Amino acid sequence: MNSIVLTQPRAVVFDMDGLLLDTEVLYREVMAEACSELGHEMAVEFHSHLIGVPKDRGAQILLGHFGPDFPLAVFHERTAAAFAARCENAIPVKKGAYELLRELGRRNIPAAVATSTHREAALDHLQKAGLLNLLATVVTRDDVEHGKPHPESFLTAARRLEVDPSTCWALEDSHNGVRAAHAAGMATIMIPDLLEPTEEISKLCATILPSLMHVLRELAQLTGR
Questions:
Q1: What pLDDT does residue 92 have?
Q2: Which of 11, 93, 121, 198 is most buried, by CB atoms within 10 Å?
Q3: Low-confidence ranges of the chain (pLDDT < 50)
Q4: What residues are annotated to the active site?
Q5: Contact 126/23 with Cβ under 8 angstroms?
Q6: Mind giving me the DSSP string for 44-81?
Q7: Is 69 exposed, middle or buried (0-12, 13-18, 19+ CB in 10 A)?
Q8: Which residues, including other chains, have CB under 8 Å from residue 21's CB and lie 6 or more apart?
Q9: pLDDT of residue 53
């Protein structure tokens, strides 16, 4: 862990998949199924390289692994269709997401999302999850030139919220997300999902917590309420 001491934030910027939404396991399942249908095997170890990676970078990783003839367009169509079918009526939400966002609202601490997902899908998923109206702004892959691990998405969120990045907490579950948030100068809290922190990632975090409920407790301890 780095030397940043957590103080009450002026704003909190959340990642989306694997952090607010319990969707990374679903993505892993539908991606593996699509690969199987196309005659390939997606091992869990390989999938880990795609977590927290923007779609354009993910495409490069897929082609590098499966070869230049891998049918990317078909793969993306099948994974999107399968994910949509599984989440047609609702999106699974991480425990503590509603409680933490509502508590931030009660304290007048604005919350934002900084995600590598494209805008249409991100807004749809947050709406279905019942979280969209609890957020002040949503920064998607369509809103920035550079995806994570570049800090642009977090810096854009801070700019929209009109706060200094150094006064923000950033909550992330992926290695690339942690790198991006730390590079933006935010107090970075990792909440591991499918990826455990490495030595490198641990050094970039102000703290590592098991869940959003633990973040809520951390916030309460800072103010004694």
A1: 95
A2: 11
A3: none
A4: 15, 17
A5: no
A6: HHHHGGGTT--HHHHHHHHHHHH-TTS-HHHHHHHHHH
A7: exposed
A8: 91, 92, 93, 94, 97, 125, 126, 129, 131
A9: 86
